[in-house]
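Question (not urgent): is this output format expected?
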Amino acid sequence: MATNTPDISEQLNKTIEQINTYIENSAEQLRCGPDCQALEATQQLKEKYEAAKTNLESAPGEYQTAKKNYYTYIMGQTGYDEYIKNNLTAQSNNIETNINTVINPLILEMKNLNDSYKTSYSSYTYLRKLDEKYNGEINELKQNIQEAAVTTGDVTTNDRKTFYEKQNYDALISYYKFSLWVFYLLLIVFTFLLFAMNRSIGIVKKLLFIVFFFFFPFFSTDITLWIIRIFYNFTELLPSNVYTKI
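Got this back:
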């Protein structure tokens, strides 16, 4: 019997605590009705929600829990879900508005910059090719001018040389014709004097003299060259002075 006494005392104490709690709740219900209790619960949850809201940076989880408890209590689970849905929709619309007002102009500006870059790059490429083309043409033109200057100089020199050669040739021809006229004029005088003054020479010898001198200009050049060649060959046979040939 002594062993069961502590258990009975413990059970009795629990029963008394339950009765006291029930009496307190009943007294509270008698003091404040259901509407009053609901208002007090709402106020308590709102206070917890506001307290958690002010401490959002340090306790975001507590803020969300208090927020959910508050709106679930006053609006129900369906009302809270609708509230969350509307809140998310509003945030989505806000993000979309920000995209339309900020991001889209940036995208358009980037597209315009990209188009400008492509245009500038195409223009740069075209100008670079055009510069290379003009530089090539300028270098080719310079080379042609240099070649033309050299050719013109050679042509001018050759023309000058040809001019002087032709001038000397014309002078020689004139001198040759003049000499030939003088020679045949003297031949006429010689023929007249030969027939008029000298009667000791026969007519045949006189004719041979006249024929010889008449054709002398045609073979005198060959005879002169032949004589010069003989003289040159003869001088080659003579002892030469080494110092004069250095």
